[in-house]
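Incident log, structure service

09:12 report received: a user says their structure output differs between two submissions of the same chain.
09:20 pulled the input from the user's history:
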Amino acid sequence: MKTYRASRSPCPIGRAARVLGDRWVILILREAFLGADRFEQFVERLGINRAALTSRLDILQEAGLMVREPPQGKRAQYLLTDSGKALAPLYREIAQWGSEHLFADDEQREEWS
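09:34 re-ran on a clean worker, output below:
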């Protein structure tokens, strides 16, 4: 199981990469921006296995990007914190770049809000 260990790099990009450099983390955050907030929603939308999702949600919480409400028990919501929400402009830019550079002219693209 993956665990989070904060970077001690003097480079801000290096520190960000420690948290955001994982494929599942990027996609979990995308789904949170698109409205997912329950464990089962993430599983269904991403096709991620439960152990991988659990470890990534733990990482996101430890990094301060998401919070679990309530902290214990069932039926919890996983919500973006202010720090997580601050990534919205970055996600818009990634979506724009991907749309412009990674699709053929005739391919359908999902719109990013």
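09:41 both user submissions now match this output. Likely a transient worker issue. Closing.
09:42 reviewer note: The beta strands are 66-69, 77-80. The radius of gyration is 15 Å.
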